[in-house]
């Protein structure tokens, strides 16, 4: 089974996953990481970890549809079975969804359906909720709306700042995402 990771930015979740692939703790092949930004830090991580990587940007194509068709062609050429989104800041369009129905997963830094969108951690912090968390879900045609696979709560204490909360959330993400992926891979391998 072949997995591709899509990421737009920092790539700490990519690195947590890649380390587990390389330690033999995930029974699948990490074929490559793709970024929609040539200068994304995730690509530096990929170089350091010697994970194959690709990048191209929407602006290099006539429109979003053409960009997505190029991405789909890459995924099909590499015979990818499962797409793992790790901070991929684009909505997955119809082209990709149709071909990878139920085979795209995402991680979101809140307890969905609360605080969807780009700023899940800050929105929860600003609202003043006492419990937030992390969600892993199947991607559908909405924004952070697909069926939930796993969730883990994170308490917000009066001592927390946005920075300490971000740190707590990311720690949970880096543990939860590999564990969820392991279950998915083991089920598919059976
Ligand atoms: C994570 O908080 C993830 O939940 C969200 O985007 C962030 C990506 O962080 N979807 P990183 O690039 O993996 O460090």
From TrEMBL:
EC code(s) of this entry: 2.1.2.2
Keywords from the UniProt entry: Purine biosynthesis, Transferase
Active site: 108 (proton donor)
Record-marked site positions (Raises pKa of active site His): 144
CDD domains, A to Z: FMT_core_GART
The keyword Transmembrane helix belongs to this UniProt entry's keyword annotation: no
Binding positions for (6R)-10-formyltetrahydrofolate per the UniProt entry: 64, 89-92, 106
Annotated Formyl transferase N-terminal domain residues: 1-181
Gene3D superfamilies (UniProt xref): Formyl transferase, N-terminal domain
Pfam families per record: Formyl_trans_N (PF00551)
Annotated residues for binding of N(1)-(5-phospho-beta-D-ribosyl)glycinamide: 11-13
Annotated signal sequence range: none
Catalytic activity: N(1)-(5-phospho-beta-D-ribosyl)glycinamide + (6R)-10-formyltetrahydrofolate = N(2)-formyl-N(1)-(5-phospho-beta-D-ribosyl)glycinamide + (6S)-5,6,7,8-tetrahydrofolate + H(+)
One BP annotation, GO: 'de novo' IMP biosynthetic process
Pathway per the UniProt entry: Purine metabolism; IMP biosynthesis via de novo pathway; N(2)-formyl-N(1)-(5-phospho-D-ribosyl)glycinamide from N(1)-(5-phospho-D-ribosyl)glycinamide (10-formyl THF route): step 1/1
GO molecular function: phosphoribosylglycinamide formyltransferase activity
Cellular component aspect of the GO annotation: cytosol
Keyword presence, Transport: no
Family to which this protein belongs: Belongs to the GART family.
Chain's role: Catalyzes the transfer of a formyl group from 10-formyltetrahydrofolate to 5-phospho-ribosyl-glycinamide (GAR), producing 5-phospho-ribosyl-N-formylglycinamide (FGAR) and tetrahydrofolate.
The protein's name in its UniProt record: Phosphoribosylglycinamide formyltransferase
């Amino acid at each position: 089974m072949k997995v591709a990771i899509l990421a737009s930015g920092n790539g700490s979740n990519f690195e947590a996953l890649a380390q587990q692939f390389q330690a033999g703790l995930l029974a699948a092949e990490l074929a490559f990481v793709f970024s929609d930004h040539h200068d994304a830090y995730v690509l530096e991580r990929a170089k350091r970890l010697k994970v194959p990587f690709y990048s191209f940007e929407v602006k290099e194509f006539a429109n979003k549809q053409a960009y997505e068709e190029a991405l789909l062609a890459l995924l099909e050429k590499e015979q990818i079975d499962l797409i793992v989104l790790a901070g991929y800041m684009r909505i997955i369009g119809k082209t990709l969804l149709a071909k990878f129905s139920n085979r795209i997963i995402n991680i979101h830094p809140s307890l969905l359906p609360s605080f969807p969108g780009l700023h899940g951690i800050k929105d929860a912090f600003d609202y003043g909720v006492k419990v937030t968390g992390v969600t892993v879900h199947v991607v559908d045609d909405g924004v952070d709306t697909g069926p939930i696979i796993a969730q883990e709560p994170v308490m917000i204490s009066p001592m927390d700042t946005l920075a300490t909360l971000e740190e707590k959330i990311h720690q949970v993400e880096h543990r939860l995402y590999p564990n969820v992926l392991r279950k998915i891979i083991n089920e598919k391998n059976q």
